[in-house]
Structure formats: structure tokens, C-alpha cells
Amino acid sequence: MFEWDNKKNEEIKKRHGISFEELEVCIKIDSVIIETPNENRNQNAFLTFLNDYPIIVPFEIRGDNYRLITAWPDRRYKDE
Fold first, then answer.
1. Angle 35-39-40 (CA atoms, 0-180°, nearest 5)?
2. Among 15, 18, 24, 73, which residue has the least CB neighbours within 10 Å?
3. Residue 80 belongs to some domain of the structure
4. Number of domains present in the structure of the chain
């Protein structure tokens, strides 16, 4: 199960033109989990692709859910 903050969803829609709803589908179809250095939280991130462009989606596990924190395009993974 996936969850997210609706205000954050609106922010990433405006900033990056992507939504958590779209990313949920992409993550379910094809994604890998990558480690992210974050000293303050127990976070990892999904690496997924939307329209053939790599997207990083940090998340936390909360109970049985993946809490999506934010998302951004990341060209470092373009040729993965």
C-alpha cells in the first residue's frame, strides 16, 4: 500500500510535472530500491521510470505502507 501527503503531491506536480498517483503505477510495474544517505531518517528510495526518464522517490516504511516523501527526475540514472 502507498500513502503520501496531498500537499506534497501538489508541490511535485507544480515543480516537476509528476504526481504520486502516476509514480505509484510506475513503481508497481518496474522499480528498484536504492539506499539514500540520510542521517535523520530511516529512508530509502525507489528508482523508477516515467516516460523513459528516471525518477527518484524517497520513502519511509510506516506499518504496512510505503510513505512516499517526495520525487524528482534524476538524469544520473538515464542510461540504467
1. 115
2. 15
3. no
4. 1
